[in-house]
Design a protein that fits this description.
heterodimer, A: about 800 residues, alpha+beta, Aldehyde Oxidoreductase, domain 3, Aldehyde Oxidoreductase, domain 4, 3 domains, about 30% helix, globular, disordered N terminus, B: about 325 residues, Enolase-like, domain 1, 11 helices, 11 strands, about 20% strand
Chain lengths: ~800, ~325
């Protein structure tokens, strides 16, 4: 069966070698609006009589709320509503198993920045003045600010949430073991155990979080919010507001970046809605950057111990991972993250003996959650650095070593991931060829180096987080008298190009120009459910759904052409805005005429396509579903850099980034995703760090939270590897997250090639490199003196 | 984040500005001068010592000229960096200016503003909410320094890029106030701590920087440490002037920014007359390591910043003496 499916979709097949829009470099359909400033973002909306909502935040890391006195704020002229946590105690959270957030703190605050009360007022000045009038009496509790503290058993009142492991502040613990890890370590040719440290990093999207809510005269709630997943917000609002979902409408306007940071339902979204319901006026909450940092669910700060054993055959024999991750105040996506930190190390190399322990703590700090490369990034760094060490110690070329260890296509991993198409070897080979790897590795002067790393990532989660049998993606298509194709979907356009993908596939299948398609993906009232833009699922899942809807539409339109011409439907193809008889191409019916004929006696044509998930797969072990995906992306990067030996400052010159995206539906968009991933990954590797000063975030601004600027961004060569996935739409797989993974370890491995020093802690800043160089110099001087003494 | 309310005054001449300031001072009203606003306004948004009145100098265009021996205090930093006379006569001023922040901020910021720039510190440059939560520091609303606890001295870091080379060139500052004009050598202007920083009456306005003519044989340069090659303040910066004669040090001038609360002029580090060789370069490094103190209040660990001060001094000496 395996080989059958593989044969079915071959690069030369008609399904792949198309003459339409698939594979064409198409500028994003919203690019003109955005680049000319015409696009409407949530903050551009100004409903009449809109109030400003502001949230009073906790100055304590962990404290009981003894009392809140809001009377003075309520009495203040210009204040329309004041809200406290007790008024909306229903909890919510993105995962059904972690419903631990509330709109505002109910009994206690659990981090500096936690919301305590909120006001809606005529303007920002009044709202801020009103917040100052709210008196909150706190009784401070012990703050839990590091791993060891949170693993301690503590009395109930010191537990950050009710549901924890064994009376500690441990949120989740998972274990998996396959094969004989200890035995392989005993028998290993090479082995090493190392502890890796990662501070938190943030998505740092440009558009701050913003929500406008309006409870209107019809008792309907409309919430406009910068969201990656309007559907989850819809669910959470219904729960917190105790309103039926059909009376709530969530609208997503253009979103200025997400990267995972807008994929949870958030407290301020609940607060805006609650305030609006209280005063029956629209309420707008716009965060400043500092509030974004408090509210955001960034990548988990982590301490990851990894053991790697290489067998006598010079292949990976065993991998032993122990990940301890700091979830901060809330559950968020954390249960998934806890699994991903281990299970996503089962590729792109074959591992037959695998052990994983994952633990996620709660702490009194802003929550951690899903961020681009969710859960896989830090462990990937550790694994790829150790692989590099093994190759170096064993005298093997690190690129060839990776090729020799690569998983084949169409196989199963030890933890029972179903691997289908797999371009890892081609990724390594092409990145190395372009980079001139063989002429550079180990051959450049001291201070200049080249490094390689691989990666693999899910292309959507096989199983949805809500197990209610509803398809993960549904797309509605409507074709009406004007010939326009209207596409309704709730896949969220967050700058990644999902609207373009939907239009492109529809236009391709229907043989019409892309501007004949219009995408409405903004409202839960009109769009069918799609579980949104996260988990690298949209192109794969919504892409399949829209393809099916378009194919059904094609059938109906061709039916119209057949009726008009008397030829059987089978002979028609849709091309060039015509239905064309493929056996006699003189017979051409304009698309609009065929469409109008098909509309006879039934009106506008409407079709539905959906994607529910791949066939059942995966093992029976606990956590087997985590990391299961209908297909996986693969990638390999080569990084070349130079270290300023005076200051230790690293400068990445070039990155060759090869990525197996299955099929580049739109190479322009795929390249942009790869470039963005490289920039973000290098940022975490070189300078980004969410720092704490005890419970305070030390750098909640874009001056001190350092992303790479244009001056540090290297030349990026995106290399598109196409493996034509049989289940992806036209062969496509994800391209928005996987290409981040190799960036970090490739930098560290290049640094080793440059200066002979390994780094096990992110970010690798100039001061750390300089210190390590000093140590190296001293050691060299020491051994030289010793040598001389001999 | 929104600005706190304040009354904005926008004089168009220096006389008008001084008159305004004199009147406000007489009325006992606290005010701030604002040139480019790139430092004052972010601080105001953070509610850092915001005052009720601001005299904005953006409409005063008489102090922007760059002359044969002076630079107007309101000259834009980008204009200074690109000015051909500055580039040929004082190349290190042009270089230091070009290393300040980023193009948009260089187009707003002024020479005077950069010179009199307020100090920076993790405990100071934060929002009101942050500081309320952490406890207010000495420099704004608090009683003790949070960098060096229990100290009643402010240890914030001076972060101007122009001061070191201006110290090396021994410039004079001209101020104008209600009592007329006065000139002060820059080398004796900065003193005290991160709060007082220097002696200047509130209604005095820095109008011009006078650059004395120097021996053409004095070679100068400036090295700046920063986490990224744009936007960043210096977290260590060393400027040096060196003239050698017959293989010995005839004139050595070293100044440092990004360490303590004020820029520091270290003169010749006791190395006048020393032989121009690697050993003296090492001595420059050692002397700087002896003198530089950094605190943990801006990016990079203090030990590293201090070490870079030494490394920069050594490199500058070798480069400028042609021994590199």
């Amino acid at each position: 069966m395996r080989s059958d499916r593989h044969e079915k979709l071959h690069p030369h097949d008609d399904a792949v070698q198309r003459h339409g829009l698939i594979g064409k470099r198409i500028p994003l359909i919203d690019a003109q609006r955005k680049s000319t400033g015409q696009e409407l973002y949530t903050d551009d909306l100004r409903p009449a009589d809109c109030l400003v909502g502001k949230i009073l935040r906790s100055p304590h890391s962990h404290a009981k709320i003894v009392s809140i006195d809001t009377r003075a704020a309520e009495a203040m002229p210009g204040v329309h509503a004041v809200l406290t946590g007790k008024e909306a105690p229903n909890s919510f959270g993105v995962l059904p198993v972690s419903q631990d957030e509330t709109a505002l703190a109910v009994d206690k605050v659990i981090f500096i920045g936690d919301g305590v009360a909120a006001v809606a007022a005529d303007d920002e000045e009044t709202a801020l003045a009103a917040l100052r009038l709210i008196r909150v009496e706190y009784e401070p509790l012990r703050a839990f600010l590091d791993f060891a503290d949170s693993l301690e058993e503590v009395p109930e009142e010191l537990r950050i949430h009710k549901k924890t492991v064994d009376g500690t502040n441990l949120h989740k613990q998972v274990r998996q073991e396959f094969g004989d890890v200890d035995g392989e370590f005993d028998r290993a040719l090479w082995k090493k155990r190392m502890s890796f440290r990662f501070p938190g990093v943030q998505h740092a999207f440009t558009e701050p979080l913003i929500t406008i809510a309006h409870y209107d005269a019809d008792d309907r709630m409309t919430v406009w919010s910068a969201q990656q997943v309007p559907h989850y917000l819809h669910r959470a609002l219904a729960k917190v507001l105790e309103m039926p979902m059909h009376k709530i409408r969530v609208i997503r306007k253009a979103v200025g970046g997400g990267f995972g940071g807008k994929s949870d339902p958030f407290p301020h979204e609940m607060v805006a809605a609650l305030l609006s319901r209280k005063c029956r006026k629209p309420v707008r909450i716009l965060f400043d950057r500092e509030e974004v940092f408090y509210n955001n669910h960034g990548r988990h700060p982590s301490k990851i111990d990894v053991g790697l054993a290489i067998g006598k055959d010079k292949k990976v024999a065993a991998l032993d991972i122990d990940a301890l991750i700091d979830g901060g105040a809330w559950g968020s996506f954390g249960v998934v993250t806890t699994y991903y930190n281990g299970v996503l190390a089962n590729g792109p190399y074959r591992v037959d003996n695998f052990r994983y322990r994952g633990r996620r703590i709660y702490s009194n700090r802003p929550a951690s959650g899903a961020m681009r490369g969710h859960g896989a990034v830090n462990t990937r760094f550790a694994y790829e650095v150790l692989l590099d060490e093994a190759a170096f110690d064993l005298g093997l070329d690190p690129a060839q070593f990776r090729i020799d260890n690569a998983l084949p296509a169409y196989t199963k991993t030890i933890n029972e991931f179903r691997i289908t198409t797999n371009g890892i070897v081609e990724c390594i080979e092409r990145a190395c060829a372009m980079a001139g790897w063989k002429d550079k590795y180990g051959k450049m002067p001291f201070g200049r180096g080249i490094g390689i790393a691989g990666g693999f990532y899910i292309s959507g989660s096989a199983l949805p987080i809500h197990w209610d049998g509803i398809p993960q993606s549904t797309v509605h298509l409507k074709a009406d008298f004007d010939g326009g194709i209207t596409i309704h979907s709730l896949a969220a356009e967050i700058g990644q190009g999902s609207d373009t993908m939907l239009a492109q596939i529809s236009a391709d299948v229907l043989g019409v120009p892309i501007d004949q398609c219009r995408v409405y993906s903004d409202s839960t009232d009109t769009a069918p459910i799609d579980i949104g833009s996260y988990s690298s699922r949209v192109t794969f899942m919504a892409g399949n759904a829209v393809r099916r809807a378009a194919e059904e539409m094609r059938r109906l339109v061709i039916g119209g052409a057949a009726d008009l011409t008397g030829y059987p439907p089978e002979v028609f193809v849709l091309e060039d805005a015509h239905a064309i008889n493929a056996t006699n191409r003189e017979v051409r019916v304009p698309f609009v005429e065929a469409l109008r004929r098909a509309m006879k006696d039934r009106g506008a044509l409407q079709t539905t396509g959906c994607y529910s998930g791949p066939p059942p797969m995966g093992g029976q072990h606990k956590g087997a579903a985590a990391g299961l995906s209908p297909t996986y992306s693969f990638q390999a990067f080569v990084v070349e850099l130079e270290v300023d030996l005076l200051t230790g400052k690293p400068k990445v010159h070039e990155v060759w980034a090869a990525h197996d995206c299955g099929r580049a539906l739109n190479p322009l968009a795929v390249e942009a995703q790869i470039e963005g991933c490289v920039h973000m990954g290098l940022g975490q590797a070189l300078c980004e760090s969410f720092d704490y000063n005890k419970g305070n975030v030390e750098n909640p601004n874009f001056l001190d939270y350092r992303m790479l600027s244009s001056t540090e961004t290297p030349d990026i060569h995106a290399i598109l590897v196409e493996t034509y996935d049989p289940e992806g739409p036209f062969g496509a797989k994800e391209c928005g997250e996987g290409p981040l993974l190799p960036a970090l370890p490739a930098v560290a491995n290049a640094l080793h090639d440059a200066i002979g020093i390994r780094f096990y802690e992110m970010p690798i800043t100039a001061d750390k490199i300089w210190r390590a160089l000093q140590k190296q110099k001293k050691a060299a001087a020491g051994s030289a003196t010793q040598g001389a003494a001999k | 984040m929104i600005l706190p309310p304040f009354e904005l005054h926008q004089p168009t001449t220096v006389d008008e500005a001084i008159e305004l300031a004199t009147q406000l001072r007489k009325d006992g009203v606290a005010f701030d001068w604002m040139a480019g606003g790139t430092d004052v306004l972010p601080n105001y948004k953070n509610r850092l010592n915001a005052r009720d009145h601001v005299i904005a100098l953006g409409r005063v265009d008489e102090l922007t000229s760059i002359g044969k021996n002076s630079i107007g205090a309101l000259a834009r930093i980008e204009d200074v960096a690109r000015n051909s006379r500055v580039q040929s006569d004082w190349p290190t001023i042009a270089k230091a200016a070009s290393l300040i922040s980023s193009p948009p901020l260089r187009n707003l910021g002024t020479v005077g503003g950069n010179l009199l720039l307020d100090t920076r510190c993790y405990y100071f440059n934060q929002s009101e909410f942050w500081r309320d939560s952490k406890g207010y520091c000495l420099k704004a609303d608090g009683d003790v320094c949070l960098v060096v606890p229990q100290k009643e001295t402010c240890y914030a870091t001076y972060s101007g890029d122009l001061a070191p080379i201006l110290l090396v060139l021994d410039v004079e500052l001209e101020f104008r106030g209600s009592n007329g004009a006065r000139r002060v050598p820059l080398r004796s202007f900065f003193e005290y701590d991160g709060i007082r920083r220097f002696e200047k009456a509130p209604d005095e306005l820095l109008v011009r920087v006078f650059v004395p003519s120097t021996d053409k044989a004095l070679r100068t340069d400036y090295l700046k440490l920063r986490a990224r090659d744009t936007i960043e303040y210096p977290v260590m910066g060393v400027a040096m002037g060196l003239r050698t004669k017959g293989g010995t040090v005839a004139d050595l001038r070293v100044a440092v920014t990004g360490s303590e609360a004020v820029p520091l002029y270290y003169g010749d580090l006791g190395l006048g007359g020393a032989t121009v060789d690697e050993a003296t370069a090492d001595a420059v490094q050692a002397a700087l390591l002896d003198r530089i103190t950094c605190y943990r209040n801006v990016p990079f660990p203090p030990g590293y910043r201090k070490a870079m001060g030494g490394e920069f001094g050594r490199k500058l000496f070798l480069d400028l003496s042609g021994k590199a």
